[in-house]
Amino acid sequence: MAEPSIEVLHHDDNRIILMVRGYHVAVVNAIRRLVLSDVPTMAIDFAYFYDNNTGVHDEIIAHRLGLIVLKSDEALKKYKPPEECRGAKETDRSCYVELVLEDEVPEDADSGRYVKAGQLVSSDPDVAPVYPETPITYLAPGQRLHVVAYARLGRGSEHGKWSPASVSVLRYTPVIHYNSEAATPQCLECLEAYPEVRKLLESGGKGSVAMPQLRRTSGLLYCAEEACRGALEVEYDRDRLILEVESTGALRPERIVLEAAKRLEERARRLLEELDKLGGDRQ
Asked: Which phi-psi region, left, alpha or beta, contains residue 204 (left: φ > 0; alpha: ψ -120 to 50)?
């Protein structure tokens, strides 16, 4: 196994792709799973309806409020984790953030309008909707909506609305072995969906190239086994793991991976502590 290393292949506001070397796949896969299940974010937990004569029931609007993505980067430092807020009242400002939504359309209005997430007034400006244009419901003339909602930190293992990632994928790095001399027109036609690989076969040479940017290789495997026999072979480097995480927007993607790694470290530490109590040998 190679020396442990982590290389950033791609990073922007919503996505991070890492090449991880020198770590067992079980360790990196544990981080992938913890990204979805254990990294806390803010989401609306419950709501009180004081007025709602729209065409949508309270329960449906409450469900939509719960799915609104809330900014959570600062919340991780300011609010207690969910396990410390069990049984807490909504007035406990170390656990809950209040978000108020109040809107109405006069009866004599020419038309109605959509109520959007950006209209939620938060008691903490650091906990606000990430996508303010998210529609919640429609108000027709003469309709009114008044809701007071409460958000707290939670984890994806409790409900998907608290999961900070929409994508968390781990895969091996594809390695392409190619021989241009054996490429046929049928082979090149089969590779239309893989222009990088087709370019290799059109180059006139042969060799091996690692292509971590290839995300879906089932079609490539088909071409290698059917139309490109002798010209193309695909294998997977199990020592070069590609971890890809896409954020919902609640947390920055690098923060998500960092928090997941912390959770894994914390669980390992607790396991070692329990083994010590039993007189276990760490060796």
From this structure: left
Domain 41-162 has CATH 3.40.50.300: no
Beta bridge partners, 100, equal 121, 148
Torsion of CA 211, 8, 244, 236, to 10 degrees: 30
**Mind listing the pLDDT tens digit for each residue in 24-49?**
999 999 999 999 999 999 999 999 99
Q: CA-CA distances (angstroms) from residue 19 to 4, 5, 33, 209, 216?
A: 11, 8, 17, 16, 16
Locus of tokens 């919640």: 136
Check: CB of residue 213 under 8 Å from CB of residue 196: yes
Name the residue among 221, 230, 233 with its Cα closest to residue 183. Answer: 230
How far does Cα 132 stand from its chain's mean position? 19
Alpha helices in 24-71 (DSSP H): 25-37, 58-66
Locate 86 and state its tokens. Answer: 């069990």
Q: What residue spans define the domains of the chain?
A: 1-39+164-283, 41-162
Distance in angstroms between the alpha carbons of the first and the last residue of the chain = 20
Output phi, psi for 244, to 5 deg: -120, 125
Q: What is the largest CA-CA distance in the chain?
A: 78
pLDDT tens profile 177-215: 999 999 999 999 999 999 999 999 998 889 999 999 998
Q: How far apart are CA 32 and CA 264, in angstroms?
A: 10
Per DSSP, 79 falls in state: S
Is the Cα torsion angle 34, 36, 41, 45 positive or negative in sign?
Answer: negative
Q: pTM of this prediction?
A: 0.88
Give the 3-state secondary structure of residue 224: helix
Q: Which CATH superfamily is domain 1-39+164-283 in?
A: RNA polymerase, RBP11-like subunit (3.30.1360.10)
Report which DSSP code applies to 70: B
DSSP string of 112-130, one letter each residue: -EEEEGGG-EESSTTS-BS
